[in-house]
Fold Protein kinase domain containing protein.
Amino acid sequence: MGCAASKQDKDMADNPFFVGPSLFINLKGGDLLKHYRIEKPLGKGAQGEVNLVVHLMSEQKRAMKKIIKSQKINEKLIANECQIMMYFDHPNIVKIYELFQDSSHFYIVYEYLSGGELLELLNKKKELKEQQIANYIKQVLEALNHCHTCGIVHKDVKPQNILLESDEQEAQIKLIDFGAAKPVDQNDVDIAGTPLYIAPEAITDNSNEKSDVWSCGIMTLQLLTGSFPYRNETDPQRICEMITRNEIDYALIEKIKTNKAKAFVKKMLSFDPKNRYTVEQALLDPWIQDNKNNAAIDKQVLENLKQFHSCSKLQQAILQLIASTMMNSKDKQKLIQQFKSMDRNGDGKLSHSELKQGYMKIYNDELKAEHVVQEILKKGDFNHSDTLEYSEFLVAASQYNQLVEKDKIEKVFKLFDQDGNGQITIAELKKVMAGAAEKSTVWKDLIKDFDQNGDGQISHQEFFDTLMKKMQENQ
């Protein structure tokens, strides 16, 4: 499945254990209420209701979508959407945590985004500043760039599918709802998407990466003018006809205040996909570049990266689990800002050259910067992709002693120790880390650095001792 799946397949062939976002995700049966407390309803969608839930182990708030099983909504469709999402690793794409099912429903657990829809923000404030709109669109484009790099077309980009992480001023946006998404090289089964935002070729032929760019262009025009280019037409069929005949009201673009914003929208809404921007081109457009928030390089974050020590596969998995579920939002927000300031092409990973540019700003010494980056990739690139991906960065750039505080280690141990007997067995590891390919994983080797007495399992003391020893190495 796109780059993410092929990368995992390659890594499984070369390396027996793949550490990545999909490791802890699988379709579970059993009692969901053993893992979650349901707090309150958040809303209803076409597929079912969404509730706010609390994860009992981590005490983290999450959103749970409850979907009724039917002929239209079956396990294959749900699995397809979740399989697409579970390989994404980007700060502007909603994170999926777990899947459950019972005899009548599927339950998909996502990260909780408390800031509401981008459309709600627009309705509340009536008018957003152009710089703020450009910053939101930049984040959408970065999310789409990650999707496209992974070989996925979203197919339903619209403000209703853009949520704000919180109600804070500098809150990140997240792209959600991959129910219509498909691999780039797969033909459309039917017309999917929302008529107001759908691209011409998605109606008449097949959607592709440029179709997401069109949808983003319509959304940008809507945010900048408060209107759609359909001359007040509301009938979905008539709107689709206007789009396919190239009869939309391009004059609406002239109502945009600045020339750079006008030029940007025109390139996003070129009728011929060949002349339309790619996501990468859109990210480099002067309107986006001039209005982006530039976070200063934080020397402490880069020093943490430099000091990070290599660790075993199981340690890597534990650290990623802690970073994704237990890191406080203030610390994570600081790291996200640093990550995005270094991720110059917005694809959700730091290449060798992007890391080197960051260290050059500190050292102004090319040889020293090159040496540091080589060491960072050797120790922090857990999945051997020759890049530092978002979840890898969160681990390597964190203060290690904050990441492995005793209460966090205790919670992770309880997660693995399924029967609560004070020992983690290989069977329990397999159950929790169900995203690992069992045939290719040498589980005894995986626990070797934790299993100090060689009895084939990990005691509570062994678990703590191994992680505390690692903390001493990083000080």
Summary: The chain is about 45% helix and 10% strand. Confidence is low (pLDDT under 50) at residues 4-15. The chain has three domains: 2-111, 118-291, 299-473. The two ends are 40 Å apart (CA to CA).
